[in-house]
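Work Package 3 (structural annotation) set out to generate three-dimensional models for the target panel prioritized at the project kickoff. During this period the team completed the workflow that converts sequence records into discrete structure tokens, so that structures can be stored uniformly alongside our sequence database. As a representative example, we reproduce one entry of 552 residues exactly as it appears in the project archive.
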Amino acid sequence: MPYKLPELAKPQLPQKNEVVLIANGDLRLSANRVCWPAQRDMEKAVTAAFRKEGWRVRRGHAYKKDERHGFIASQKEGMDVFKTIHPDAPLVVAEAVWQYSHHVLHGLATHRGPILTLANWSGQWPGLVGMLNLNGSLTKAGVPYSTLWSKNFTDAFFRKGLREWLETGIVTHDTSHVRNADTFRLPDAEADLGRSLAHQLQTEKAIMGIFDEGCMGMFNAIIPDHLLNPTGVYKERLSQSALWAEMCQVTDKEASAVRSWLERKGLTFVIGKKPKDELTDDQIHSQCKMYIAAVRIAHDFGCATIGIQYQQGLKDICPASDLVEGILNNVDRPPVKARNNGQVLYKGQALPHFNEVDECAGLDGLITNRIWKALRQPPENTLHDLRWGDPYKGRGVNDYVWVFLISGGAPPAHYINGYKGTVSERQPKMYFPLGGGTCKGVSKPGEIVWSRIYVQDNELHMDIGRGGVVKLPDQETNRRWQATTPQWPIMHAVTYGITRDQMMARHKANHIQVAYARNAAAANKALAVKIAFAQELDVKVHVCGTKNGLVD
């Protein structure tokens, strides 16, 4: 008797001049409900823009009345949606929110038709960050795609790109600001130092501690072992459950000592009495225990850098990790003693922490820490979301000023007035039902080196450039905070020699790594050393923006 073959799904054939639109979302119902109105409004504007070009938009999945949103909210749901989408259909992934890329990556990886990722130019939830993460994930997966962004989807830049995509299936962008680093001749002293530091890492090796790999769908944030290990870095796969268990062993006296230390330094906790909406003493106490636990576990396993997954998992049993992450990245931080012998662990050092276990940022942060210490520059560094931006003119600033913003990881050394300029506010409850304080501040003016390590064509790549942090009036800072997430630290960044659209067209991640230098000359030296270091690790380096002191 012949076997009965399974009946395959029969997706609907695309009609002429028709695109299919999908909206990927969060895993958390609370976030999807709150963010849905922004997505709905964006889709109306996008549909109108396509209609003006003579094209129809068909939504690839329905609004869910019982959940009160229209997002794809899980990987399984995404697979069900793609069963109904013809693989040759022109496909638009429209994002006004943060999204979990793994919900849709499987379908995009096997889609044959042209793919357009699309975001609204807004810092609200944010779609730009979600789209950049999806772009980085598609890049790592080797999936061809085009990308566009717009504030209202009526501007000339967007209309030109949309027409090009509808006619050819591809959008071309200006990336003339990018130049392969092997076309530069680095200064001899900096090149020698970079190569020597890289050789030391590859010879002596280092351990990257990962508290549960993979976070919020960020496929792009996972470096495959066969690419990471040749750099000299090896993963220690830890568990958030182990972190929680260690927290339970920390005494109340130890936790209270951490808080007292922070308050003596000037850090301000914005405290209330309603744990569902406000930061409470109990939440802070738990975070202080997490700080101690993280340092002790890192020491147990000999980690040179660690990353806590953030959001999923721990959010359901304890307050957020953000305060911990920021303090870990600071050289001046509360002392943590070993359990038995009283030894101060990592004394006088930052313990580089990569937010959201973004391993690309972890490798970058470790490299940066070693270079900056060798150059006797402040080694504190962090990732930020490339969140949003606006032009600004006034008080000595006349440039496009980015909002770099991250919930955890930014160290007080980066802020105006250090710890005295650091505030801890409760995380938004739609993300963290059990609360927890952030490590918030306004980044000080100064010169920075920015970079991003990413995976492309089964190789490690690094984009790197120079920039500056500017000081904006308090009113403008608050406007930008209120347009994004006011509980999180902010950096007013200018990327030298790179326009807004060039940056968006090129960047392969939601995150960007930043470190301060004492002045422009010191930043140029650090840039050259970092290029040489990465090249010695066989990372393909691309210099973005101005030449920044490099010699041809």
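The chain has 15 helices and 18 strands.
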